[in-house]
Design goal:
Number of domains: 3
Structural class: alpha+beta
CATH class of the largest domain: Mainly Beta
Radius of gyration: 44 Å
Number of strands: 18
Shape: rod-shaped
Largest sheet: 6 strands, antiparallel
Helix content: 25-40%
Strand content: 25-35%
CATH superfamily of the largest domain: Galactose-binding lectin
Number of helices: 8
CATH topology of the largest domain: Jelly Rolls
CATH architecture of the largest domain: Sandwich
Length: about 425
Amino acid sequence: MVLRWLLALLIVATGVGLYANEHWTTRVLALDGIEPAQRLQAADDHGSGGSSEARLLPRPAGGPITLDCDIRPGFDWPFCELQVEFPEGDLDLRSFSHLKLWLTVDGPTLDHSPPQVRVFLRSFHPQFSGNGAVVDLKPHEVIFAPNDQAQPVQLRLAQFMVSSWWAQSHPLPVPLMGPQLDRVRVISFSTGGQAAPGRHQIRLERAEFVGNWIAPETFRLGLVGLWMVSLLAYLVWDGWMARRRLQMSVQRSRRLAKMALRDPLTRVANRDGLQRALELLQQVQGELGFPLSVVFLDADHFKRINDTYGHDVGDQVLVTLAQTLKRNLPRDDLLARWGGEEFVIAMPQTPLAEAVAVAERLRHVFARTLWPAGLKVTASWGVAQASGPAEVEAALREADQAMYRAKAAGRDRVISGSA
């Protein structure tokens, strides 16, 4: 019972933990340009040979960050860009899963499609970033048209791929290829590739990186570890309990052997020995010994055997009957001579239907047994079940009555107390 409660508790804890990791341990990093650790910059194509001009407009209280841009012709790849820098240290975004953007853009496009924005996560690495100039930071890029999206736009960080144009001009060794978001130094919002000459604006109301304080895969790995440790602890505990039960069983067997009084003829317990054995069984196993089934059997026409063949043969029949029962019963079942030619079998942890089947099997064993003087000996069987210690005496009486009903019904048969 305790094990079941512990298993249920572990299942509930797992479910609560998964839900908590998803909903209660959310981590949010806001990009608002207000914090000292964030610095806003306007950038354009002047440094690349273009003539476009970008500037940050004064920000009204509670209003968006607005980049105003004049895209001018004469350059193949004109752009304007809003940059959020982190002068106090690079960002490690590996524990975040999403970027939520409240973002709109305006401006003409060459193909008259909705204006696009490029979002860059620019990472630093000493092996390819030199002194940390923006142009040498590895850009991870996503391009989309924000005005066509429901706000906020939610981007998975797994969607950000290294810009192909940067990878061509910055060949890297294999270990450094692919996304690297452990040292993000600049986050940029740039005009799209189809931006036409004219006035453009990028308005960023808010940006949030969203993740968990404990990464889901790390948390789930921890849960797997918890289950494995719990399973190992259970196996250790179960092994210890098995050894303890074995020791108790050995001790019980020894104590039963000393305490049970035996019938001098058949060498099985007598009535008093069975009563003491049942008491000891209840002390050692308690409720674990139930249901307990009781089988009464009585050798059919035994008086006729004594009268016809004499008491010596009758005694041999009783000895053969007892030894046959002992050989064909499980070790934990208790056998006793109740008196005369009556015997009782007590079967711990055995329901009524199973005890009836055992009695039927023993009845067939009797039919194959070689009896003294070439006799054919049968028995009448009565079976009853006790569900708890308080019902043992009643079960004995009920089995005894069922046995007499078996005799009245023609002998050599098994009748249960419920029949």
